Amino acid sequence: MIRQLKESIKAKLSNRSRRSGRKQKQRKKDSGDEEDMKKYRVRMRTEKGWGGFTPLHSAALHGNRSLVQSLLSNGADPNLVSEAGQTSFHFACRQGNIYIMHQMMQHGADLRLVDLQGKTSLHHAVLGGSIVAMHYLWETGMFRYSDSDMYHLTSLHMAASTSNTEVVRYLLRNQRCAVDAIDQEGATALHVAADHGGVEVCWTLLQRTGYRMLHWKNHHGLTPLDLSKLGKTFRHQQLTKLLRLYIYEPMHHTPKESHVLYYWTLLYPTLSGSVILILAAVGGGYGGLLCGLLFPWLARSIFTAFHRMTTYQRLPNPIYLGTLFAGLFHTLLCFYGQIMLNIL
Q1: Beta-carbon count within 10 A of 35 CB
Q2: How many Cβ atoms from other residues are within 10 Å of residue 342's Cβ?
Q3: Per-residue pLDDT tens digits for 1-31
Q4: Average pLDDT over the chain, rounded to an integer
Q5: What is the CA radius of gyration of the chain?
Q6: Does domain 50-141 have CATH number 1.25.40.20?
Q7: How deeply is 41 buried, as exposed, middle or buried, from its count of CB atoms within 10 A (0-12, 13-18, 19+)?
Q8: Which residues contact residue 261 at a Cβ distance below 8 angstroms, ignoring those fewer than 6 apart?
Q9: What is the pLDDT of residues 81-129, one digit of tens each?
Q10: What is the largest CA-CA distance in the chain?
Q11: CA 341, CA 344: separation in Å to the nearest integer?
Q12: What is the pTM of this model?
């Protein structure tokens, strides 16, 4: 009996020691997991991949708000640079994501940092084509639109290189950028636009400067027309024809806008709707079928139009205003031509 009791006590003590050992091992394992998690979090914040991109770079580049917020909350540094000297804040500016830009500024993003080409955050916003991001950065008071990079390229040069007419118009407004500023090769924004075949941008710049800019030569002795001739694309051919028309004009003159297409577009819904109604009236019993086929086609041609016309003048597209006028015109016509005559 005593022997059985001793054996029972030994077994209980042995089980307790085994359980205690397992608990100690589990604690060590948990502490090791915590250490691994800490190392993983540090690696996620600082480890660089292809091109020197950190996870925060990639998240900003793709505009992933939740991932950016998570990385910043866990200590990710928005001032780490890639191999090209670009920070994740530069990428956010290029994407024009104001929310991410604001979050990075709240977590210590240094707006004064430039990349290896000397491009500022404002330059990256210009290259991305985001006017909202440009104005947001300008309101910080730390940037000027006239600032240039190490190649003396201004914001206007960069906007001209991307053929972004809206940004060019914004930079020319209120003299935000000097239209005659030159880079280290002696090229103006007009030279850059001609080199890239930017027909609309060239038209916009010539309206501001006049034809005198066509005669300016860069350090290689090339005018905007010469650069346009070197291009092989269809847009370069279009631009070459346009500049050839203007090269012999007086230098103090500016291109005149043609409003023929503008007014045709304004009247297009009214005239087209009238033609469809006339065909329906002439068609007799087939009038309803004609209306059912032609009015959807007319609606499709109207509602697929862009907010600006596709000509090089880039005038505001008046087709929606014309649609409003067409509706009022046809309504009044039917009211007086049908209802009022029957009443009287």
Answers
A1: 10
A2: 7
A3: 556 555 665 665 566 666 666 656 565 555 5
A4: 84
A5: 34
A6: yes
A7: middle
A8: 309, 311
A9: 999 899 999 999 999 999 999 999 999 999 999 999 999 999 999 999 9
A10: 126
A11: 5
A12: 0.70
Backbone angles phi, psi at 87, to 5 degrees: -90, 170
Q: Whose CA is closest to 91, among 59, 139, 137, 118?
A: 59
pLDDT tens-digit readout, 140-192: 999 999 899 999 999 999 999 999 999 999 999 988 999 999 999 999 999 99
Name the one residue in this structure whose structure tokens are 């003590």. 13
Exposed / middle / buried, residue 72 (Cβ in 10 Å: 0-12, 13-18, 19+): buried
pLDDT at 218: 94
Residue pointed to by tokens 């008071």: 141
202 near 239, Cβ under 8 Å?
Answer: yes
Query: Closest by alpha carbon to 189, among 160, 216, 218, 213?
Result: 160
Mean pLDDT of 319-332: 87
We find that the CATH architecture of domain 144-256 is Alpha Horseshoe (1.25)
pLDDT of residue 36: 45
Average pLDDT (68-89) is 91
SS3 assignment for the chain: CHHHHHHHHHHHHHHHHHHHHHHHHHHHHHHHHHHHHHHHHHHHHHCCCHHHCCHHHHHHHCCCHHHHHHHHHCCCCCCCECCCCCEHHHHHHHHCCHHHHHHHHHCCCCCCCCCCCCCCHHHHHHHHCCHHHHHHHHCCCCCCCCCCCCCCCCHHHHHHHCCCHHHHHHHHHHHCCCCCCCCCCCCCHHHHHHHCCCHHHHHHHHHHHCHHHHHCCCCCCCCHHHHHHHCCCHHHHHHHHHHHHHCCCCCCCCCCCCCHHHHHHHHHHHHHHHHHHHHHHHCHHHHHHHHHHHHHHHHHHHHCCCCECCCCCCCECCHHHHHHHHHHHHHHHHHHHHHHHHHC
